[in-house]
TrEMBL record:
It comes from the Eukaryota. GO terms for biological process: acyl-CoA metabolic process; fatty acid catabolic process. It holds the Pfam family 4HBT_3. Residues 42-121 form the Acyl-CoA thioesterase-like N-terminal HotDog domain. Residues 325-349 are annotated as: Disordered. The keyword Repeat does not apply. It comes from Salinomyces thailandicus. SUPFAM superfamilies: Thioesterase/thiol ester dehydrase-isomerase. Gene3D superfamilies: Acyl-CoA thioesterase, double hotdog domain. Belongs to the C/M/P thioester hydrolase family. Residues 334-343 have a biased composition (Basic and acidic residues). GO terms for cellular component: peroxisomal matrix. This is Acyl-CoA thioesterase. GO terms for molecular function: fatty acyl-CoA hydrolase activity.
Amino acid sequence: MVASQSGNTYLPFVDLVKLEQVDERTYRSIAPPFSPGGDIGGGRAYGGHVYMQAAWAACHTVAPGFLLHHISGNFLLGGLTSVPFIYKVHIIRDGRSYATRIVNVTQARGKGICFTCTCSFKVEETSPLDAQEKMDVEEKYKSVVAGKRPESFEECPGMDVPWYWKRRQETGENDAFPGLEARKADMGPYSDEKHPLDRRQLILYRTLGDMPNDPNLHLCAHLYASDRNSLYIVANHFEVGDIFTQMGSLVHTVVFHTGPKKLLFGPSSHQSAWLDDQRGRWFMKEDSSDRVADGRGLFHSKVWAPDGTHVLSILQDGMIRVTKKPTATPEEADAMRRREQSWKPRAKV
């Protein structure tokens, strides 16, 4: 048993990810779970921790050369910060090119499965068919990044909501986030005059500490980063970050599009791109949402490598409720309509 919130420290990623083996296909987390926002963060463990470690447990059961390419997970119960996660890996299939695992995760005895996911692995291959959207971050977001380096932006807030921003401004405190250095770009110059559907948020991230030469470990670090402030960003884009009544991840999916070379953390050997850095190159999440309804919000993100390669995509369906009960009261509906009427018009195509 570990003390509540003891996981909120700047821990190197290699220490955060460690597992101890219980039996042939069962593993237990070593680093304690943690809650974004620390003692005021609601007491729920960060979902990216269990998501990443479930995949890492699955990685222990595949043959050399099989690399993560897709993981889809369902969050069933809120994670506790005082109990280790237990990961049970089920082998579904081992093929010549692809392998599949299901991982079921538990914490407190008798409470059942708190998280479950399907992990797909594949061997690396090359293909002459390779197409993607072009990305020049310095051109597309010049109003935001001009004259700045990634480290010029503030560290991501422990909780990305208005009341936490105010608390941080008044006290200078931001709860430590293990395993990851993440910076949040000030998107005001780009997004303030846009409709919520057209707004974007850039999150720049890299791992804390040195990373060993294990491609799946680097891929797991991206999985860990994929959940950073995701639903908060949706709520903020639709201007309900100060009024939502409940929030939580439901289904979270990540797809890797490239081989591991484009996805490795570590220092850049050159400085040709804005995200290159000899102290550890940055990756960039480009976050958005194009749907909120039925008490839920949809989070999208494209992740870009320093050279402009689109390396992975993220899709999250999460609970974002703005009413006290499933059926809105007339007062709640009227308040939401007034907010919608204040939104800027859509950008012209």
